[in-house]
Design a protein that fits this description.
Radius of gyration: 19 Å
CATH topology: ADP-ribosylglycohydrolase fold
Keywords: Hydrolase, Magnesium, Metal-binding
Distance between the termini: 46 Å
Order of helices and strands: HHHEHHHHHHHHHHHEEHEH
GO molecular function: hydrolase activity; metal ion binding
Helix content: 40-55%
Number of strands: 4
Strand content: under 5%
Oligomer: single chain
Cofactor: Mg(2+)
Shape: globular
Number of helices: 16
Largest sheet: 2 strands, antiparallel
Bound molecules: magnesium ion
Family: Belongs to the ADP-ribosylglycohydrolase family.
Strand order of the largest sheet: 1-4
InterPro entries: ADP-ribosylglycohydrolase (IPR050792), Ribosyl_crysJ1 (IPR005502), Ribosyl_crysJ1_sf (IPR036705)
Length: about 375
């Protein structure tokens, strides 16, 4: 897993687009979460505000929890290992200790119970115990942060599935959450490597036998129904369906018929669904970025997007580059990437070169808790 992976320039652009797309979707949707504001006739803007009183361009818990996974992936780690999972667990806690303005109930319950210095084993056990007690751990909180797993395992789809499920299980025991993470990461991997959107049905075969019929039916549904019908979308399955429905909708339209680039049109459509807008847009944004690349993300978004831990768009690009190539990073890009050691295994494409399932699954943001609790929601 520590070999440098040879990627073409366009593949690296798409790998960077995964994290940028997720972060921009998150920051764009933040202002409209659970109907706090309504997009105007020109579509959503990076207005900030929302339930966490975010600054314009500031990302929320979705990207703040994605960031630790990307950091560990950027160290060339195999995300299935205890060391890697422990590092992610510790970093989740560091973020949580900072008093984030927005955190899901499932995630906060696990972090509260796992202690101040959690290991992956502790978090996974606590998450399982919570599920056994409540029967509910299928919120969208692990899917929203899963995208870096795809970058860490571009050359190893079987390892990707295992890693996605292990990282998901740190907080979400429900098998549907792990399956959704694995399926979404397989799709992202396909888009980064090939430059085309995946047929998710072709990837479902990598899931357990008893999950395949379930997901085939859900993907069919997502492609047949209006994206606007996938609300509420706090449940991981509905969130994935909402994101896939908008991605497919923009992909199936000739670009010349869209008012905006497909990345912008897709995120606008994701936020227009409503409910958990930042999370659905973050999930969709990862796939849109994987297909169209970092260069398709509007510069006006890249300039302003930022968030915990005091990072900006260029930091996401740096981590994405490192995670995807297991190479020297953006400062060596592109000439040094993949130039000196055996290639990875990207054949044939490699080149030289919240109650869960509802808004009530979310903890009221700390900074706005009294205001939120006073509202009917
Ligand atoms: Mg959020």
């Amino acid at each position: 897993m520590d070999q440098i992976v040879k990627l073409a320039t366009a593949q690296i652009d798409r790998a960077c687009g995964v994290l940028l797309g997720a972060a921009c979707g998150d920051a764009l949707g933040a202002g409209y979460e659970f109907g706090v504001a309504t997009p105007g006739p020109e579509g959503p803007r990076m207005i900030g505000g929302g339930l966490g009183d975010f600054a314009p361009g500031e990302w929320t818990d979705d990207t703040s929890m994605l960031f630790p996974i990307a950091e560990v992936a950027a160290t060339k780690a195999d995300l299935r290992t205890t060391d890697a999972l422990d590092a992610i667990a510790r970093r989740f806690r560091e973020w949580y200790d900072g008093g984030p303005a927005d955190v899901g109930i499932q995630t906060s319950s696990v972090l509260d119970r796992a202690g101040t210095k959690p290991t992956a084993e502790t978090m996974t056990r606590v998450a399982a115990e919570l599920h056994q007690r409540t029967g509910k751990s299928g919120g969208n909180g692990s899917l929203m942060r899963t995208a870096p797993v795809a970058l860490a395992h571009l050359g190893d789809p079987a390892g990707l599935v295992d890693a996605a499920m292990k990282v998901s299980a740190l907080t979400h025991y429900d098998p549907r959450a792990g399956e959704a993470c694995a399926l979404w990461c397989l799709g992202i991997r396909h888009a980064v490597v090939t430059g085309e959107l995946p047929d998710l049905r072709e990837l479902i075969g990598r899931l357990a036998d008893d999950a395949q019929e379930f997901w085939t039916d859900r993907i069919d549904e997502a492609e047949q129904r209006d994206p606007a019908t996938f609300t509420p979308n706090g449940y991981v399955v509905t969130a994935l369906q909402a994101a896939w429905a908008v991605v497919k909708t923009v992909a199936d339209v000739e670009v010349c018929e869209l008012d905006n680039h497909p990345v912008v049109a897709g995120l606008n459509a994701a936020i227009a669904i409503g409910n958990d807008t930042d999370t659905v847009a973050a999930i969709a944004g990862a796939m849109l970025g994987a297909r169209w690349g970092a260069s398709a993300i509007p510069a006006e978004w890249r300039r302003v997007v930022h968030g915990w831990p005091g990072k900006r768009a260029e930091d996401l690009v740096h981590l994405a580059h490192l995670a995807a190539t297991k190479g020297p990073g953006i400062y060596g890009w592109p000439s040094q990437s993949g130039s000196t050691t055996p290639s990875g295994t990207l054949a044939p494409w490699s080149s030289r070169t919240h109650t869960t399932r509802r808004s009530s699954s979310r903890t009221p943001p700390r900074s706005a808790r009294s205001k939120t609790l006073a509202s009917p929601r």
